[in-house]
Amino acid sequence: MDAEPNTARRFEIADVLAGVALALGVAARIAGAWATRALSEPDPTVVALMARHMAALKEFPVFFYGQAYMGSLEPAASALMVRLLGSTGLAVNLGPVLFAAAALAFLWRWARDAAGPWGGCAAAWAGCFGPLAYFQFQFAARGGYMVALAVNALAIVAAARMAARLRAGESVGWARWFGLGLLAGVGAWSNLIVAAALGTAALLLLHGLRGKFWRQPAGIAAGLAGFVAGFSPWLAWNARHGWASLAMSQIGGHAPLREALRNSWNRLLLLQDSGALGADSRGPLLLAAGGLALAALGAVAAFARRRAATPRERYARAGAALFCAIFALIFVTSGFTRTHTARYWVPLVPGLAVLAGIACAAPRRRGVRVAASLALAALVVCQGALAGAALAGANRKSVATLAGHRELGAALDRTGATALLAPLQLFPLNFALDERYAVSNGKQRFYEPILRRAELAAAPAYSSDFNGLGPFLAQAGAAFESIPAAGRSIVWNVRHAPPDLRAIPADAIAALRDGAGADLAGVLADGNLDTVWAPGARRDATLEWTFAEPRDVHSIQFLFAHAMGAEAFDFPRRVSLAAEIGGEWRTLLVSAPFIPLEWSGPRLFYPSGFARPAFRLEARGVRALRATFPGEPRAGRGLAWRLAEADALETAGRFQRRYTSKAVAALAAWLRAQAPAGDVYAPRWISNQLLAEGGIPEERLAGLVPRVFAAGDVPRDGSVAAERAGLFIVEPRHEAAARRTLAAHGAKYWVKAVDKWQVFTVAAGGWGADGLDLPPAAVWTGETLVAGRASARVAAALRRLRAGGGSDETQRALLAEIVRWRPAALSALPAEHVWRLGGAEAIRVRLASAQVPKPACATAFANGARLEGVAVAPAEIRAGGELEVRLHWSAGEDFAPGQEIVFLHLRDARGKIVAQDDYRGSALLWGDPSLRPVPGECVAETRRIALPAEVPPGPLDLAVGLYQPQNGRRVKVLASEAPAVRRRAAVWPAAVRVVP
Questions:
Q1: How many domains are contained in the chain?
Q2: How far apart are CA 30 and CA 128, in angstroms?
Q3: pTM of the entire structure?
Q4: Positions in the chain short of pLDDT 70
């Protein structure tokens, strides 16, 4: 049979009408590029910056700035427009319009192959505007979506034509195979959302080859070569960057099926109008129903008329149906369902448009064709009206946005600042103001040079709506100037000159207790980051100082054992402060918020490292001081916050200007002359200025923020490397803490006063004066050196104890280090081993501090996790009751935490699951590495499982295991002391009995 379509080669009236649709569609997209010329979101701004840099031949990134995925082909098109038209938002938006126009033309060609001229005409009109979110993306510089649409349509058109020729026994030259492979490679590099289209193309070709792909070795080889060529930017970049792109995927990790389907439908409704019609409107439902009904009719018509169709028509139609089905399946089973945006449905629209075109041209009955065409016409009119209204609104917004950008630029010109710390929505100022200022929120790594400039600025300006800036400055008593601009103010010339502070000495504090009267002095005033107060975030928590004599308290400072923004913890949101003065309690602060800002020297930063919030009080004659952390009933998803130190501070009555250019110059000169090598730990502002002004190389500065500066060999998480020299630059008020930490290790050090700073120097190997050669249990807080992070030290001691060897004296010394720094890790050693080396006292400490499960059920999983014990209570329960399951976990030396999900299944006698709990594993094991137990140390967690009311009486088995959320595959059980192992799970038969 002839592989060519039955339609004549001459153009018909339908092609003229299709041409009108294509011209109107391109014109509408250009109008959209103009209407949205004022870039107002971060993503388009990143594309705009990429385009400007590429047009200026400054750099040629492989991927979207700040990401390891989404190639730079679409920004390259924007760069071409910038080169031709100038660096404007319009030029940037015209880049995706080029690909959108090509995608629209390929859509018409695809539908014409599938259903002739009238089918192509109908599809062209269906894609002219399309759902509103789809239309808005046609001219939105988002990085790679329009490339994906063009690749999708062209790949399926080409594959359908090749498959038709192959099915008819005709030859397909290697050039076509190579071209299709090249297109697939470029598409995969640009945006992996093309996977559904490439899979469809592969299935069409496989069918065309009748499954005998080995009969086309030259063609297959040419196609693979083309794919490698097109995909080569991805391959070359990842070969140099540790294949980082492989971790950047949302395929897998989807919501449960019912939730995924509900979310998918909601996103499909959002696709229709981008929320313009309101949540209560039935418009999105009608538009979605109309589009899906036309697509369904097209699919039915394609199947019903398959015998009357030519091979090319059949393959083009099959391509549309397959693509829609595969894309929907991928969407529903991916992480896309968890993201509240319609953007991931956008690539589906061309496939639906082709099916709609088939519905208007392929049915046998003329009445059906007419009805479908009228329905499509109504749909296009509605979509066009929405598009027109959206363009008018976007143009008004652009006019206002551009005016606001000019106001903000003029205000910044007056400040003399080189950077602006502002909310993320002001990131577009970087493009609008030609990158004269580094505008950043201090944490987002869209384009690292901008973040770096903002970090290193000695005195930036601030947007008044940045992270609660106003209350923070007021609480600190800072002075500043401001300039109103564009509905906000630009805050600059911030002046913060705190007095010379010192901690109220321990002998002046009679007591430090919590609300229940428990003594916390040994926890919150011991200079150890590992000893913490963690009362929980759900209820009010109170901390109270009682002074031996009335004191003048200037402020209090808290040091948490984690960052303020650490997701693993329920961080306290507010604190109330009261003082007993003259026998009466007076409220000093009421529900003062913990604001995500921090001082370092004369300027503010977005917080980094350990949270160190401070609150100014300036209270005189204080006999007692109380801090209350209000509970959050909704908290509990994360771990309880961990307060490591709490200091009440007083002033020496004088002001000291330590953070000065003079101090930076003096420190830099001393470091170059006296300590030309070694890691330099200094407060954030000092570290930044040593790099920017002092000439100290980045690879030496451990005090730089890891979010901004890559770590390399120097640790930037507070860790101390004993094998290299360390230099610790501290204020005099922190000198005692540093000395105490160094003395606890018996470290060899010397101190030098440089300007108004104390510089502690520890030579390489100077931490090992005890002869044990263990890593130090010391950590840099951002301001000083304290004890803590003992896990590396204890882990090394455990490894040596397990390995044996060495004298008994050495082994006893190693055990003593574990008892001293992390007694909970004694659970990693057998009780008899602890008794032999430490006697009764070590056993007492083990029982008091270590989590030792009874009975033990050591179960080793293939990822290195170990289930050490399981306890279920109560043993008997009624239907509808709640079980409590306590689990003990540990990690082996080879533990590699991933996204594993822990499952607890209760099964009846027939093996049916009657209740279950699937959850992300304990944050102590799978969370922040700094919290992870040392290998062999047990951590405990408690889970609660509610039994359904209809569970019949009888025994229930408990199964515990792990699985990968991406594919549901269970993690293999290597060995287990549990009563049974079934289906890669440790099983306790009759663990609980349901009673009448």
A1: 6
A2: 13
A3: 0.88
A4: 1-11, 248-255, 279-280, 566-568, 634-638
Residue 33: how many CB atoms within 10 A of its CB? 24
> Among positive and negative, which fits the CA dihedral 700, 701, 705, 709?
negative
Spell out the residues 6+ positions from residue 16 whose beta carbon is closer than 8 angstroms to its own.
Answer: none
Cα angle 55, 59, 61 (rounded to 5 degrees) comes to: 105
Q: 235 and 362: one domain?
A: yes
Nearest-5° Cα angle at 972, 968 to 973: 135
Distances (CA, A) of 371 to 291, 293, 374: 14, 12, 5
Q: What count of residues does the chain have?
A: 996
The 8-class DSSP code of residue 423 comes to: -
Question: Which two tokens mark 470?
Answer: 């106003």
Beta-strand pair 954-963/901-907: antiparallel
Let me know: does 610 contact 718? Beta carbons within 8 Å.
yes
CB 623 within 8 Å of CB 578: no
If asked whether residues 280 and 331 sit together in one domain, one would say: yes
Burial of 218 (0-12, 13-18, 19+ CB in 10 A): exposed
Determine, yes or no, domain membership for 41.
no
At 708, list the tokens: 């901004």
> What is the residue range of 489's domain?
418-495
CB 218 within 8 A of CB 226: no
Query: At 314, is the secondary structure helix, strand, or coil?
Result: helix
- Of residues 638, 807, 643, 779, the one with CA closest to residue 716: 779
Phi, psi dihedrals of residue 827, rounded to the nearest 5°: -65, -15
In sequence order, the 6+-apart residues with CB closer than 8 A to the CB of 505 are none
Exposure string of 626-643, with b = 16+ CB inside 10 Å and e = fewer, is bbbbebbeebeeebbbbb
**Are 207 and 226 members of one domain?**
yes
- Per residue in 759-801, pLDDT (tens digit) is 999 999 899 877 888 999 999 999 999 999 999 999 999 999 9
- Using one digit for the tens of pLDDT, what is the confidence trace for 332-359? 988 788 888 899 999 999 999 999 999 9
> For residue 242, what are its two tokens?
């540790």
In the chain the first and final C-alpha atoms are separated, in Å, by 73
The residues, any chain, with a CB within 8 Å of residue 805's CB and separated by 6 or more, are none
Distance between CA atoms of residues 21 and 36, nearest Å: 22
Residues 725, 677 contacting (CB under 8 angstroms)? yes
Residues 634 and 505 in one domain: yes
702 burial type by CB count under 10 A (0-12 exposed, 13-18 middle, 19+ buried) = buried
- What the block records as the tokens of 204 is 């069409």
Peptide bond just before 855 cis, omega within 30 deg: yes
One domain for residues 326 and 443 = no
